[in-house]
């Protein structure tokens, strides 16, 4: 019985884009939670340590690793939002045909990148 | 000895009236988070460039305090529901599963309280 092939065999079966986005939705969800936990620690540090603590946290955010993490987080947040919207559409019983599935998949990826770039543009205008 | 199959026992008993609860809460919090997410993303994107006084003034602005508290409550609730599903899908030992879900929920609830406290402290005492 154990010799029988598994389906889908994850090391052989090439996942369709919908499946890749589905697992990405989970991964980004967990990643967003990790970021939110850091945000709490930031708020707490800031509430008890005042300006000094704020500046030490900010110096991390200004480093290239810090900026990369922040923008990766924002992008993950937008992807999770876009795929979440698709789940809401699915809940209405629409959008399950094969053509719609792939069209929406590309739309989601594009939307999350565009939204991240828009927020990036907004911070450039403000500063 | 009961020779009934589990299906036969369940038949006619009606629904558990509970099945859609988790799902529904997840959708309600998701919809509430849609606008809040844009607001939070824009706010956090400006963080590396903002001065300490900018950030304090931002948290102190009444609508920001209210939205920040709302975001914390809804986001932590949504995170609890989401992490629960992830744990339930990947942890297969029942006892471990229950402990992991409980642990994740308690830790998240605690962090949510900490976040709300910190927000209020900054907003009210600066």
Question: Key terms for this structure?
Answer:
heterodimer; A: 127 residues; mainly alpha; 3 helical TM bundles of succinate and fumarate reductases; 3 helices; B: 126 residues; 5 helices; 0% strand; elongated
Q: Find the biggest chain interface.
A: A-B, 40 and 33 residues
- Computed Rg of chain A: 19 Å
What is the level-2 CATH architecture name of chain A?
Up-down Bundle
Strand content of chain A: under 5%
- CATH architectural category of chain B: Up-down Bundle
- Return the string of H and E elements of chain A: HHH
Quaternary structure of the protein = heterodimer
The overall average pLDDT of chain B, rounded, is 91
Q: Mean of the pLDDT scores of chain A?
A: 90
How many beta-strand elements of chain B?
0
What is the CATH level 1 assignment of chain B? Mainly Alpha
Q: Which fold name corresponds to the CATH topology of chain A?
A: 3 helical TM bundles of succinate and fumarate reductases
What fraction of the residues of chain B are assigned to beta strands by DSSP? under 5%
Note the main sheet of chain B: none
Helix percentage of chain A: over 70%
* Structural classification of chain A: mainly alpha
Question: CATH H-level name of chain B... which superfamily?
Answer: Fumarate reductase/succinate dehydrogenase, transmembrane subunit
What would your notes on this structure say?
The complex is a heterodimer of chains A (127) and B (126). With 127 residues, chain A is an all-alpha fold. Chain A has one domain (18-126): Up-down Bundle (3 helical TM bundles of succinate and fumarate reductases), CATH 1.20.1300.10. Chain A has helices spanning 17-62, 64-91, 98-126. Chain A starts with 16 loop residues before the first helix and ends with a helix. With 126 residues, chain B is mostly helical. Chain B has helices spanning 6-10, 21-45, 52-60, 62-90, 94-125. In chain B, helix 2 crosses helix 4, helix 3 crosses helix 5 (94-125) and helix 4 runs antiparallel to helix 5. The radius of gyration of chain B is 21 Å and the shape is elongated. The model of chain B has no long low-confidence stretch (mean pLDDT 91). The A-B interface holds A 26, 29-30, 32-33, 36-37, 39-40, 43-44, 46-47, 50-51, 54-55, 58, 61-62, 66-67, 70, 73-74, 77-78, 81, 84-85, 87-88, 91, 115, 119-120, 122-123, 126-127 and B 27, 30-31, 33-34, 37, 40-42, 44-49, 52, 55, 75-76, 79, 82-83, 86, 108, 111-112, 114-115, 117-119, 121-122.
């Amino acid at each position: 019985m154990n010799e029988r092939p598994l389906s889908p065999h994850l090391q052989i079966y090439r996942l369709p884009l919908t499946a890749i986005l589905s697992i990405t939705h989970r991964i980004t969800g967990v990643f967003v939670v990790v970021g939110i936990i850091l945000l709490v620690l930031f708020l707490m540090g800031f509430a008890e340590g005042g300006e000094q603590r704020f500046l030490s946290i900010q110096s991390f955010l200004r480093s290239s690793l810090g900026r990369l993490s922040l923008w990766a987080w924002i992008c993950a947040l937008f992807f999770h939002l876009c795929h979440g919207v698709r789940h809401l559409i699915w809940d209405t019983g629409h959008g399950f045909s094969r053509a719609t599935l792939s069209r929406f998949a590309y739309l989601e990826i594009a939307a999350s990148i565009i939204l991240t770039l828009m927020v990036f543009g907004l911070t450039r205008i403000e500063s | 000895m009961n020779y009934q199959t589990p299906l036969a026992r369940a038949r006619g008993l009606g629904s558990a009236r509970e099945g859609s609860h988790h799902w529904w809460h997840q959708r309600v919090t998701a919809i509430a988070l849609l606008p809040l997410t844009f607001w939070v993303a824009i706010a956090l994107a400006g963080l590396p460039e903002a001065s300490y006084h900018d950030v304090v003034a931002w948290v102190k602005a009444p609508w920001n305090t209210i939205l920040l508290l709302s975001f914390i409550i809804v986001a932590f609730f949504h995170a609890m529901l989401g992490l629960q599903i992830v744990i339930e899908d990947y942890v297969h030992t029942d006892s471990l599963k229950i402990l992991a879900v409980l642990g994740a929920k308690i830790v998240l609830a605690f962090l949510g309280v900490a976040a709300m406290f910190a927000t209020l402290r900054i907003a009210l005492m600066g």
